[in-house]
Amino acid sequence: MDKRDRAELFRERLSDALRSREMNRSDLARGAGLDRSTVSQLLSEEAPRLPNGQALAAIATALSVSSDWLLGLSTHRGAAAEILDQAVQVAETDRHPVDEHLLAWYRDAVGAKIRHVPANLPDVLKTEAVLAFEYAGETLRTADQAIIGTRDQRALLSRAESDMEIALPRESLEGFAEGEGMWAGLPAAARREQLDVMGRTLEDLYPSLRLHLFGANDRYSAPFTVFGQKWAALYLGQRYLTFSNTRHVQLFSGHFDDLVRHAVVRSHEAGEFAVRLAEGI
Fold this sequence. Notes:
GO terms for molecular function: DNA binding. It contains 13 helices and 8 strands. The chain has helices at residues 3-21, 25-32, 36-42, 53-63, 67-70, 80-87, 100-108, 128-134, 143-157, 170-178, 188-205, 246-261, 267-279, and strands at 88-92, 113-117, 163-169, 209-214, 224-227, 231-235, 239-243, 263-265. β6 (231-235) and β7 form a beta hairpin. Helices cover 51% and strands 14% of the residues.
């Protein structure tokens, strides 16, 4: 777009914003601190022109619109703060990520690729024994509720159009097998069953479900999920920070792709890897 076309688009959007706000040229001149002649020149159909940076900022503020929108650089009409509020939101939740928010986003994304980095092991692959152990002392949500939520998530995953990728540090699985950290006290039999079930499930559902294991000494990631091209949710603990802006979603997708590229255990090997860990317990 050349300068004249940009100026014409600016004039059209400035006129549209004035109509929407039910303001006239004098109102805008007063609100933006500009001469009325300056406003008239910007709205001239015969010789449209672009304002300088200071005038542009003043006009955008007076009209409560985005300066990028006025210039045709964005489709978001609202002011920057409003755009940010719409694009980034906080969703309150219970401690674990199998809740109403996550399930709703999963349902909304059925048919699109889901990319998931879990907080520990993937909930969709956890056995009931492991869930019962993990949430035995939970006061916000019971183990039974966690089990039901996981069943619902697994049912969505079993649909033919499902496509889900999970990225996890290899050390997380190895630490689970050894009963380290939060898994200390979980009986060896339960750990063995969990890894065996995980391995068989990964082999049965491949390629609609793929697990990539990256090295924790090479890559790091906070827990998050990308739902197609619509949403990305960063799990903070007790709440999600959710993103709907396309660039934000692409940023999370790119980070996930980087984890996959640096996987030390590829998705077609992950099921066998889990089974070998089970056999070693």
